[in-house]
Amino acid sequence: SFFQDPAGIFELVEVVGNGTYGQVYKGRHVKTGQLAAIKVMDVTEEEEEEIKAEINMLKKYSHHRNIATYYGAFVKKSPPGHDDHLWLVMEFCGAGSVTDLVKNTKGNSLKEDWIAYICREILRGLSHLHQHKVIHRDIKGQNVLLTENAEVKLVDFGVSAQLDRTVGRRNTFIGTPYWMAPEVIACDENPDSTYDYRSDIWSLGITAIETAEGAPPLCDMHPMRALFLIPRNPPPKLKSKKCTSILNVPGESTLRRDFLRLQQENKERSEALKRQQAQLAAQRRDPEEHKRQLLHDRQKRIEEQKEQRRRLEEQQRKEREMVRQQEKGPHRRLDDIRREEDRRLAEREQEYKRKQLEEQRQSERLQRQLQQEHAYLVSLQQQQQDKKPQPLYHYSKNVEPNNNGTCYNFNLNNPTDHTFH
């Protein structure tokens, strides 16, 4: 509810900036701990209607990925005689504004693909507003916030105005001088002058120059002098020729990678500053306790440095091991090929030896069979010799002469010695 007291619902944590009408705090939802951006403003009767109009616009048009989400509005009552405080609670963008990003970047200049990514996201948010007949009228780096996931969000509708559905133009002079379009400035000089949504596109172009060069054109001049020159000068251009076309480079994830690293460094610097301030306050309260705390912090830093060195050495070891593995890759494949060839050669040799052994065994079996057959034949021959018939005549020492008178004399002691008579 618009009139609900924020006590017990949201609480303020710390100041993070100044808006159009008041200070902006980092806040926290009491029950869930969810962070939020809380703009605290002193409410007067004259400003009440305009603030209500702003709240209505926030309710209607903040549901877009490139516009900071509206959570609610509260009124914190003040003592009599003092203005009440209006709390506008919106999505918290923990990475700061585009202006902060530029200031924290070396050379105060963003990379071209970063600029392209930011401009594209701003255009998506402006397209959403323009489709609903709303002109932002204060587009600049300070009003473009970044989340820790590198999301781009438009904020500060304090100078936004809803377009008339028929005329579609405004003739009120509100905005930041250096980012103003010439037709917006002309409204102050000529009441009949008007402008439309295209003034936001001009401011986006000035914001692109701000991200590339660290500041908008004419920033070194007095604001009134800039208001005089902007309508009379030609449209500003980039001073550097190194940028090709900042709107012609795709960048869905390019910003996130380096940007998150930069935000981590900024967060560490902010935490170090807070620790230093806390140490100074503690030193003033209790010097002895401060000394003990310093020793404790020093020991803690030493341990953290040791742990960081250990992690770094471990990472370097893994990287060296990875390089060695990559270098060994081709050699390992050659070794695998050689081992495979050796294995196949060993298998072939084993197969050859197995076949040789089988042939030798076969030869031995054949030889045994031949020997058995030969022995069998010899035994058959022996059996045949044993079965020969007895001779029909038996010779004695005296042999009778034959019919023709021949006489044979045999020497029985020497059968070869015989004579004929």
UniProtKB/TrEMBL annotation:
Name of a matching Pfam family: Pkinase
One annotated Gene Ontology cellular component of this protein: cytosol
Chain intervals with Polar residues compositional bias: 399-421
Classification via InterPro entries: Kinase-like_dom_sf (IPR011009), Prot_kinase_dom (IPR000719), Protein_kinase_ATP_BS (IPR017441), Ser/Thr_kinase_AS (IPR008271), STE20_Ser-Thr_kinase (IPR051700)
Biased composition regions of type Basic and acidic residues, renumbered to the chain: 283-341
Entry binding sites for ATP: 39
Domain of life from the UniProt record: Eukaryota
Region Disordered: start-end pairs: 267-341, 381-421
Entry keyword Nucleotide-binding: yes
Domain Protein kinase: 10-334
Keyword Ubl conjugation: no
GO molecular function, a single term: ATP binding
Keywords: ATP-binding, Kinase, Nucleotide-binding, Serine/threonine-protein kinase, Transferase
Family (UniProt): Belongs to the protein kinase superfamily.
Protein name: Misshapen-like kinase 1
